[in-house]
Design brief:
This protein has 171 residues and is mainly alpha-helical. It contains five helices and no strands. The protein has a domain of 96 residues. Helix 2 crosses helix 4. The chain is elongated, with a radius of gyration of 44 Å. It starts with a helix and ends with a helix.
């Protein structure tokens, strides 16, 4: 590209090539990795494979076994270094996973507290409504009250008919 082509302002510049990724990295990616690693480190599968690995390592490197090249003689300094390295990476991953879980638990507790407060406010409102309905119901005739009143009226009317008919009939 010449200097004249580079100086043109009406044309967009060529994009520079970069080895870095163009999109933003996901900030949660390492957290998800840490949680997955911590979840795996706490399984029986991990303990079983780790036990098998250590047993094979020790059996391979004991001096009283068959004659073969040994890369870590007793007292197994390289194995100790490997286990220390594994522990030095596992501990922060587990702590990171615990911190993320604690943050999720805190958010869930806040949401539960808010839901409980709303439910409590709703219950108080419904309690006031039921109390006002009870007060209002005291002033309203109930079905049983109306039935008893109608029965007494019917009984009075029947008695009234009997007395009227007795007065009208000659003796």
């Amino acid at each position: 590209m010449t200097d004249r082509e580079r100086a043109r302002l009406d044309q967009p510049r060529e994009l520079r090539r970069s080895l870095r990724p163009r999109r933003e990295p996901d900030p949660e990616r390492f957290g998800r990795f840490a949680e997955g690693a911590a979840r795996f480190l706490g399984t029986a599968t991990f303990i079983m494979w780790m036990t098998i690995f250590i047993a094979v390592w020790i059996v391979w490197n004991v001096p009283w076994g068959p004659d073969r090249p040994r890369f870590d003689e007793y007292p197994f300094i390289f194995l100790t270094l490997m286990l220390s390295l594994q522990a030095s990476y596992a501990a922060p991953l587990i702590l990171l996973a615990q911190n993320r879980q604690e943050a999720r638990d805190r958010i869930a507790a806040e949401q539960d507290r808010d839901a409980a407060a709303r439910a409590h406010a709703d219950m108080e409102f419904l309690t006031r409504e039921v109390a006002s309905l009870r007060l209002s119901l005291g002033e309203v005739a109930t079905r049983d009250f109306l039935r008893s009143e109608l029965r007494s009226l019917v009984a009075e009317l029947e008695r009234g008919d009997d007395t009227e008919s007795a007065e009208q009939t000659p003796r």
